[in-house]
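Lecture 7 notes: from sequence to structure.

We start with a single chain of 179 residues. Read the sequence below before looking at the structure.
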Amino acid sequence: MHRWIFAINVAIFFVLAASLVFFFTQKQGFLNSITQANKQSPAASPSPTGVQKAATPTAQVITSKDTQSAIIKYTNSTDRQFLEPFMAKNVSVILYATDCCQPMSPKDAIKQIDYINKGMPFTFDQKKEEIVSLKAKNPQFSNTFIGISQTGEQAIIYAIGAGTNLIESVQMSVSWKLY
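Now the structure, written as tokens:
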């Protein structure tokens, strides 16, 4: 009987010891990450009076031009994951003349853009005759950023939010002539 009690106490001791080791290693990792973050944040330079001012983080403001440049660059690339920061939380994706799709995450929307891969490269010259015609015939496209294949008939139409400058919807078609 005493051997069982002794064995149980030894087991409890090892479980507690392992828990303490785990806790302290996790705490040490947490402390290291805080220390690294403090080392990486830029220290403010001393002011003429010798008093240091705290560094103020500046938010990256995405402009419509930033989003359009990213669209041109990454639509004509297979590295489309770089479009993700330029997308809203939920992106409406439409594959014209299909039942696909619904609002989805930027990651899933990027996968759907493969639908028009055969049309690469795309031109996004909004003064191109075909794009001007599309916008004239389809008032819903008046404030969109349209790309047309230079080798085929594929089209991709991006709606960029006026307030956010983020991609809110992507519509794709095997032919711009279907509109």
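The CA atoms of residues 67 and 86 lie 6 Å apart. Keep this in mind for problem set 3.
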